[in-house]
Specification:
heterodimer; A: 504 residues; alpha/beta; 16 helices; 11% strand; B: 502 residues; nine-stranded mixed sheet; 14 strands; 39% helix; elongated
Chain lengths: 504, 502
């Protein structure tokens, strides 16, 4: 029997315990595997649990520590990885039936870095199919449930990673964020999630949704833990041509004795007000008040082009996705379906495979994207969307001339009920209205809990910084987190109901 | 109206009634060690699907990284074609579904080629030159190779199943596209051939490709259209794909001119389509009908950043360009003192560089030419290979000629030595030694043979003694036979006369 309290520790605390040799990585890893066995039937955060590999990695770290080797600071702390990230020897489906059973022959760069740093990988977390969605309801393998209320969505697409962290199944998780897939799940599960600057974390090995928007990042319970994980996975990778050449700014360092005095905090007028739940607005305003009290200079900034961000996003993303997803055709790997009748030609196998293997949301976006790129429509759709993207980048540039960071609620509402928006794609898309602009501009964003709404569910507070200034997110995030935790008398997750442990 | 596609008008009549316009799109495989966007190897003839990485297999998550060497070769070729080099250019995705494309899109330059607006002078066999304008030269990746198994023809129709080899997938190509080539009239087929040949010579001279036609390093798509007169607007063109030898390029243009002329002469219309080339019959057949509805949904490749070659780099490459093949040929012809006809033989044998190397290794130009356009060209032809592919080097040929020049072997023996070299028996020296072919220069041994021959033919000996010196030939022949050709005939003759006279 392992020590169940180990799962309540932050990654930073576990790292300290491991370094002091008070616990072994095997104990920590086993505690999390036990927790997964206890609660994941109800939460369904994982699509695949790699218990044997995780324990083998933990044993290896323990042996190296015993031998007196110099180890990475996080060595031995387990991590969960979103299923859109390829893992050598471990199934990777991206939440899609079309990749069921595919075992990649290679590791994503960020996975190589996790392994090299000695972080045992607990398994692969659930997500909307190919990361298309805001609720995990579009997963080909059933939705993930929000640990705060199992009848509600955990956000998406990275609901599995956020729920795993919120339910203490993992101290750390990897997410990917194309339009908010790290930040919005963090917001609705009371956890912390960071979308780094575009190019800050290698995309090599991320099953691509929209290449110009995708970015991997940390999903954790504290700001410090995100900084620790971000430093493991970030930095230049020659295998990703869009990877930034310069080293990361000091992220963990930015969380030490954070201070916001004199910091100019811009409240984006277009990312609050109408359409935002009153309880969300109240929580957001209170958090801004804390920053002001601490000496930050709060200013209002205007980003008029944000009005068009959602429309531009839903042209650029489907266009790139329609091309990125073309390779899933049954010819080389994954699902292969032969037509029920008629000749079995390559073209007909491709059509049958894609018809059977893709879910409705994927088909919807592939069709949208194919249309947007078609001759005669390209300029009106894809071309115009790229112009809007430029305008949004200019809005950010102007806003960052007035403010060091920008802030907004992460999502307009708290977690909604499973099924509530499933038949209304536009309502679902609106969830990401506050997170999408950062992806279009390539800038970094962080979400941390700012409190509970009047419905008793967590609210996310978003901090945005200029490209390459990810350290500012951690400085503001760490300050606000400390102030809030002091007011609450403990972490917000302490307010979440205890999950029932299933019989084993 | 319906017109049969296999009707042909005689060529002379076709070009008398219509003005042909041609255009060529030539794919050149760049001889880089690794692929366009990943580190997989590019060697020829390896086991299927052994030269692949997650990138060239298009596995989920894999990302491309541009091969700097391929960009450099693209710039090199662009400069040699007199092109401008782009200040900045991007790759695009050309989207279509086909099993030989691992990602179901080809990463290719589209509206932003690395090189554009060039011009080359093409020299025909009789020395006439024709200017060909280059629209652009762009970088792209090759697709895999499909093999259709079970059908009668090796084509997809009727095949039981198909195999795909992705070793070729991702190999870097430069596609060189000409502007329409006007005003060539009856010489259009010859111009097309000469242009492709020039391009092949150029890529070899530049070192950007091995330029081996039989391995598909240079593949031409041939565009042909006809119009009633040079003042008329351009007619509808057909694009005959994958014409892979010089002779076929010429034949394909000729055939399309004759076929289209027959269609037009019968009052029909030429369809805008791609056509397949049939090597055996020298004909084309319809492929896909091309229309403006062909939609590859091009968009800029978001996984790559723009290529912005610095001007300093471009100038560095320009400074390292070798002499253009045509200029080099003219200079070499003067250096070697060859007549136009002699030089043409060398060029047509594809042996300019071989002769140059043989001369550099010490042979006289005339002797080098004689070997490469004579014995060796015939051998290559008989073996059905390029003369460059024979297992004999210019150094071997120079060594062989030196043996003749110094009198150590005779001309006749030299051919035997060459056979030995071609059979892999080693250098000419080694073959001479191993086969015992050196000229017998020991007078003692020769005198024995002369005496034996004189004794065997006393009547001939008597004639010589009587002053009929020309009769000595019979004795010389007998000696040559006895020494299996290893004797110097002039020396033998001198010995015979000396012996009889004494």
């Amino acid at each position: 029997m392992t020590d169940a309290t180990l799962t309540r520790r932050t990654a930073g605390e576990l790292a300290a315990l491991l370094q002091a040799r008070e616990v072994s990585s095997v104990e920590v890893t086993q505690a999390h595997l036990d927790r997964i066995a206890d609660v994941d039937d109800a939460v369904h955060a994982f699509l695949h649990v790699s218990a044997d590999e995780a324990l083998a990695a933990a044993r290896a770290v323990d042996a190296r520590r015993a031998a007196g080797e110099q180890l990475h600071g996080l060595a031995g702390v387990p991590v969960a990885v979103k299923d859109v990230v390829v893992t050598r020897g471990m199934p990777t489906t991206a939440g899609s039936r079309i990749l069921e059973g595919w075992v990649p022959p290679y590791d994503a760069t960020l996975v190589e870095r996790l392994r090299a740093a000695g972080l045992p990988i607990l398994g692969k977390t659930n997500c909307d199919e190919f990361a298309m969605g805001s609720s995990t309801e579009h997963s080909g393998y059933g939705p993930t449930h929000n640990p705060w209320d199992l009848a509600r969505i955990p956000g998406g697409s990275g609901g599995g990673s956020a729920a795993a962290v919120a339910a203490y199944e993992a101290p750390l998780a990897i997410g990917t964020d194309t339009g908010g897939s790290i930040r919005q799940p963090a917001a609705v599960t009371g956890t912390v999630g960071v979308k780094p600057t575009y190019g800050g974390v290698s995309r090599y090995g991320l099953v691509a949704l929209a290449s110009s928007l995708d970015q991997a990042g940390p999903v954790t319970r504290t700001v410090l833990d995100s900084a620790l994980l971000h430093e493991v996975i970030g930095g230049h990778d020659p295998r990703d041509s869009t990877s930034l050449p310069e080293p990361l700014p000091g992220l963990v360092a930015a969380t030490h004795a954070p201070d916001v005095r004199g910091l100019r905090v811009g409240v984006v007028r277009q990312l609050s007000g109408d359409g935002y739940q009153p309880g969300v607005r109240a929580s957001f305003e209170a958090a801004v008040g804390i920053l002001a009290e601490a000496g930050a200079e709060v200013v209002e900034v205007s980003c008029p082009s944000f009005e068009y961000a959602l429309s531009a996003y839903y042209l650029i993303l489907p266009a790139e996705a329609s091309s990125n997803l073309a390779r899933f055709d049954g010819m080389r790997y994954g699902l292969r379906v032969e037509p029920a009748e008629g000749p079995v030609t390559a073209e007909r196998v491709m059509a049958a495979t894609r018809g059977a293997g893709f879910g409705d949301e994927v088909k919807r976006r592939v069709i949208l994207g194919t249309y947007a790129l078609s001759a005669g429509y390209y300029d009106a759709y894809y071309g115009t969307a790229q112009k809007v993207r430029t305008l949004i980048q200019r809005d950010f540039a102007a806003a960052f001339a007035q403010a060091d960071v920008l802030v907004s609620p992460t999502a307009p509402t708290t977690a909604f009920r499973l099924g509530e928006k499933l038949d209304d794609p536009l309502a679902m898309y609106l969830n990401d209205v506050a997170t999408i602009p950062a992806n279009l501009a390539g800038i970094p964003g962080l979400s941390l809990p700012s409190g509970l709404s009047d419905d008793g569910l967590p609210v996310g507070f978003q901090v945005l910084a200029p490209a390459r200034a990810d350290d500012r997110l951690y400085r503001v995030g760490a300050f606000l987190e400390a102030a809030l935790v002091e007011r609450w008398g403990g972490p917000i997750l302490a307010a979440a109901p205890e999950l029932e442990v299933s019989a084993r | 109206m319906s017109v049969t596609t296999d009707a042909l008008l005689p060529f002379d009549e076709a070009v008398a009634r219509f003005d042909p316009v041609i255009g060529l799109e030539v794919h050149v495989e760049l001889g880089t060690l690794s692929k366009m966007f990943d580190g997989a190897g590019t060697t020829f003839g390896d086991a299927p699907n052994s030269l692949v990485t997650p990138v060239s297999l298009g596995l989920p998550g894999a990302l491309p990284v541009v091969n700097r060497g391929a960009v450099e070769r693209g710039i090199r070729l662009g400069l040699a074609l007199g092109c401008e080099i782009a200040q900045t250019c991007r790759f695009a995705r050309k989207n279509y579904f086909y099993p030989d494309l691992t990602k179901n899109f080809q990463t290719s330059q589209y509206d932003e080629p690395i090189a554009f607006d060039g011009r080359v002078e093409v020299e025909l066999e009789d020395g006439t030159t024709v200017a060909v304008e280059i629209e652009r030269a762009h970088l792209e990746e090759d697709a895999g190779k499909n093999t259709h198994v079970g059908g009668a023809t090796g084509r997809i129709h009727g095949a039981e199943y198909s195999l795909v080899d992705y070793n070729r997938a991702g190999i870097p190509l430069v596609e060189v596209v000409t502007r329409p080539i006007l005003g060539t009239g009856a010489r259009a087929p010859e111009v097309a051939r000469a242009y492709v040949q020039l391009l092949r010579d150029l890529v070899r001279a530049l070192g950007v490709s091995e330029g081996r036609m039989e391995r598909g390093h240079v593949r031409a798509d041939v565009n042909v259209s006809l119009r009633p007169s040079p003042d008329a607007p351009l007619g509808t063109r057909t694009e005959t794909k994958n014409v892979n030898s010089f002779r076929s390029v010429e034949r394909a243009v000729r055939h399309e001119i004759q076929r289209q002329a027959a269609v037009l002469a019968a009052g029909g219309t030429v369809l805008q389509e791609t056509r397949h080339w049939h090597e055996e019959s020298g004909t084309t057949s319809p492929g896909r009908v091309k229309s403006d509805a062909d939609d590859y949904r091009y968009f800029p490749e978001p996984d790559l950043v723009p290529i912005a070659p610095s001007r300093a780099w471009v100038e560095e490459i320009r400074a390292s360009l070798p002499e253009a093949p045509a200029v080099r040929r003219r200079r070499l012809q003067a250096d070697w003192a060859f007549t136009d006809a002699e030089m043409r033989d060398v060029v047509n044998a594809g042996a300019v560089e071989l002769v140059a190397a043989t001369v550099a290794a010490g042979a006289a130009p005339a002797a080098a030419r004689k070997w490469w356009t004579g014995e060796l060209a015939r051998t290559a032809n008989a073996r059905g290979v390029d003369v460059t592919e024979l297992p004999v080097t210019p150094v071997d040929v120079a060594a062989l000629q030196a043996l003749v020049t110094t009198g150590r072997i005779t001309d006749t023996i030299a051919r035997q030595v060459l056979e030995g070299v071609l059979a892999g028996e080693g250098t000419p020296e080694a073959v001479v030694a191993a086969r015992g072919l050196e000229v017998v220069s020991d007078d003692g041994a020769l005198l024995e043979a002369v005496d034996a021959a004189l004794a065997a033919q006393p009547d001939v000996a008597a004639k010589i003694r009587a002053g009929k010196v020309q009769a000595a030939g019979a004795i010389v022949g007998a000696v040559m036979k006895a020494t299996r050709g290893r004797a110097d005939a002039a020396r033998v003759r001198a010995l015979v006369l000396e012996r009889v006279g004494s």
